[in-house]
Amino acid sequence: MIDLKLAKQTVEYFFRDMTFEVNVEASFLDERQTLLINIDTIDPQVLIGTRGQTLKDISHVLKIILRKKIILDYPFFIEIDINEYRKKKAEYLKELAISTADEVSLSQKEKAFPPMPADERRIIHLELAKREDIVTESEGEGEDRKVIVKPR
Q1: Which residues lie below 8 Å from residue 76, measured CB to CB, with a gap of 6+?
Q2: Which of 36, 64, 94, 113 has the fewest Cβ atoms within 10 Å of its own Cβ atom?
Q3: Would you put residue 113 in left (φ > 0), alpha (ψ -120 to 50) or beta?
Q4: In this predicted model, what pLDDT tens digit does every residue of 37-81 receive, in sequence order?
Q5: Under a CB-based contact definition with an 8 Å cutoff, are residues 2 and 76 in contact?
Q6: Which DSSP string corresponds to 67-105?
Q7: Tens digit of pLDDT for each residue in 114-135?
Q8: Rounded Cα distance, 115 and 140, in Å
Q9: 78 and 99 fall within a common domain
């Protein structure tokens, strides 16, 4: 079982060593397979970076550190968020996906989102998967990959 106290303490030490003052909360999602780390700080933009890139880099490093400290016999996932940036971004993408799907359904013309990372494309695909009037697909390669919404 994942030790929440150890996970929280490890994240606190990580940021303290980087001279950032943070408040860390650790909890579980989906039956203890995902460790959710929420970080609150006074100056989140420095830790989030442009388009969330610094947050992704910090998340990557922290995942490696936490996986080395928390050795388990089963796979687990770690989600790290700073001042609810990822949560707010996901909500924004879901709203954008719905309004884009409504527009495509009405106009019967496909519409492309700008290129975005895989985790953001996944949010859009999952949000629109339940719709029967449109279909989504990803197109392009690497950093140019984007979601296309088409009428069914």
Answers
A1: 2, 32, 33, 34, 35, 70
A2: 64
A3: beta
A4: 999 999 899 999 998 999 999 999 998 888 888 766 667 788 899
A5: yes
A6: HHHS--SS--EEEEEETTHHHHHHHHHHHHHHHHHHHHH
A7: 999 998 999 999 999 999 999 9
A8: 9
A9: no
d(CA 69, CA 75): 14
pTM: 0.81
Instruction: Out of 44, 68, 83, pick the residue that ends a domain.
Output: 83
Q: How many domains does the chain have?
A: 2
For the chain, the 3-state helix, strand and coil shares in percent, each to the nearest 5, are 50, 25, 25
Token digits of residue 5:
């106290």
CA distances from 77 to 9, 58, 62 (A): 18, 15, 12
C-alpha to C-alpha distance for 34 and 28, rounded to whole angstroms: 6
What the block records as the tokens of 142 is 């690497």
Query: What does the chain come to in residues?
Result: 152
Domain that holds residue 141: 88-151
Q: Which residues contact 45 (CB under 8 A, 6 or more apart)?
A: none
CATH number at residue 62: 3.30.300.20
